[in-house]
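Subject: sequence -> structure tokens, single chain

Hey, anyone have a minute? Need the predicted structure for the following. Not urgent.
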Amino acid sequence: MDNPHPAPAIYIQLKNRVTVPKGKGVMLRDVAFLITEPEWREPLYSLLLLQPEQSDGNLILIDLLTVIPRIHELLPHADIQPIGEGRTIVQIEGPATANKPSIALFVLVWLLLFFGSALTIMNFHADVSMQEVQIRIVEMLTGRRDEHPYVFQIAYSLGIGLGMVIFFNHLFKKKWNEEPTPLEVEMFLYQKNIDHYVVNEEYSKMKRRGDDTSGRRGE
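Reply:
Had a minute. Here:
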């Protein structure tokens, strides 16, 4: 006799990194995209995968090998087809009040970056004798020597600012095109390296816990 309820095919893709509020359980909808029969979609998305504890810290690794058994508890004969990466990083986020930006901290960082950049540019100009170069350029263009070529220096300063805006493809919140800025690329690579480190560290912890459990059983 044919089975009236054949095992559904489930295509699952884990997200790369997700944020979950503190105190909330991690459900399958939080960490994965699913393609399956409509009647099974909501029950699967509502599966509770993990209830974070204080000892888990604020970064938790969820592996596909821990997700599949939870799905099989609901659908024992489901045909699960994983797509993409087999793990996701869950970041536990504290209360919203704790994440409000500090105006004082923003001003402090802004001043630090502003004066740090200004000192870097001035030190570079001092190293290459930029003032003497500018004096010489003005002398070549006008035929007379001016020890304080303010017009040229003002134009040069404005050019530096315009060049930075074009290079970073950003003016406040406005972007000139859809290309990522160098800063965005560096932040992306930085976050990718952090995620890679977290994954390796979490796998190492899981391995150590497994070894400890095996050792206690051997005793």
